[in-house]
Amino acid sequence: MGGGMRAWSRTLAFGRLVALAFFVVLMKAAVSPFLGLVLVACSPTRVYHEAAQDGGDAFLETTVDDRQTLEECIVVIRCVSKGAECGLLDDGCGGTIDCGLCPSGEECGSQGIPNKCPKTDSGPDVEQDVSFDASCEAGDKACDGLQIMECAADGSWKGGAWCSEACVNGICGCVLPWGGVLPEGQSTTAFEHDSEVSPELCAHHSQQRICQSGVLTGTYPYGDCVQHYRDCQLQGYGALPHGKQIMGYDRPTVACGSSCAQTTFSCHDGSVLGGEIFFSTCAEDCTCGPYPDITVTGSNSGWVGGSNPYTFDSAMARAAVHAGLVAVGETATIKRWSMGVVSGFTGSTQNGITTSSWSSATCGVYLTK
Questions:
Q1: Which of 14, 61, 131, 290 is 20 to 30 A removed from 32 (C-alpha atoms)?
Q2: Which distant-in-sequence residues (6+ apart) come within 8 Å of 195 by Cβ?
Q3: Measured in Å, how far apart are the chain's first and last C-alpha atoms?
């Protein structure tokens, strides 16, 4: 019986140990969340002062007061406000802002300016013949790439402000689309097109572009505009370019006893000065004409010889249609210029009228309005 009691005692002790272990497990599961809440409630809040020490000066650029936590930080930094063209910026709240990449694979900040793309063309006067190791006169300014250099009172060069676009003659400026640099505060005339053809004029499509705080106003992309004018069509001669002039005659013949007078024909923007019709020769005519102006109504009937000039006895109403001076049924006054005796006339078809050839010499007339 003594052995049985000892066995029973051992069994009872083991059962108590199992029960105690099970109770500990249950208590741990129930108490853990409560302890977590207590720890959170008792933990010190990470306030602005601590965050400022961790984050440095960048954190001071955020608009939070002393009672706000780091999680409530408001990001006010932007790429534009910082003048950043590329790379990453610290947003002041423990994160970063991506300001993009430089074009054509250029390395961001490769010219020693953080968050700036390298400038491949900084315009005239940017590369100045200045030794920044030499002495200088106080107050002088120059450019070292995109940085303004100022001569201090001790006669040595000191690095000053950085320009966002270009530096010229010691001040910041704007890069012009057509090349070169416009200094800060100055303006220049820009054009919408690089050339214009009259009646459109370059001056009618121009604007003033101003460099303001490193930003070039306006949109017109050309620094110059070439003005083109219209050529002239001179009857009896052909195309006469603008600004050109030729010598000739405004009539083929003059009355018997008269002298031919040479005329200067010139072209100005599509308008002929000197006369409406050009003749290369002029002669005294004592056999044909003169022929007065006549009023005709265009017709498609009657015989016509030649192709302007026409024979003097042609049906002028039909000849005028052939010459393109009137349409059939249209009435107009035409001029008949004596061509003197013409050795032969060639027929043709134009404007719906076919004329005949005439091989014999006879008086000829040239028709105009």
A1: 14
A2: 202, 225, 226, 227, 228
A3: 155
Closest CA to 70 of 97, 47, 44: 47
Segment among 118-122, 129-133, 191-195 with least mean pLDDT: 118-122
Using CB atoms within 10 A of its CB, is residue 86 exposed (0-12), middle (13-18) or buried (19+)? buried
Q: For strand 226-228 and strand 215-216, is the pairing parallel, antiparallel, or unpaired?
A: unpaired
Residue 7, helix vs strand vs coil: helix
Q: Please tell me the predicted confidence (pLDDT) of residue 67.
A: 39
Contact 137, 153 (CB under 8 A): no
pLDDT (tens digit per residue) in 172-216? 999 999 988 999 999 999 999 999 999 999 999 999 999 998 899
Alpha helices by DSSP H, 90-186: none
Helix (H) or strand (E) holding 351: none
Sign of CA dihedral 14, 16, 18, 24: negative
Find, among 201, 202, 220, the residue nearest to 210 by Cα.
Answer: 220
Confidence of residue 20 (pLDDT cuts 50, 70, 90): low
Task: Say yes or no to pLDDT of 241 above 80.
Answer: yes
Torsion angle (degrees, nearest 10) of CA 54, 56, 60, 66: 30
Q: Is 352 within 8 Å of 321 (Cβ atoms)?
A: yes
Query: What rounded mean pLDDT belongs to the chain?
Result: 80
Most distant CA pair in the chain: distance in Å?
177
Distance CA 279, CA 209 (A): 52
Domains of the chain: 233-283 (no CATH), 288-368 (2.170.130.20)
pTM: predicted TM-score of the whole model, two decimal places = 0.46
Q: Render 304-347 in DSSP notation, one character per residue.
A: -BBSSSEETTS-HHHHHHHTTSS-TT-EEEEEEEEEEEES-B--
If residue 159 lies in a helix (H) or strand (E), which one and from where to where?
strand 157-162
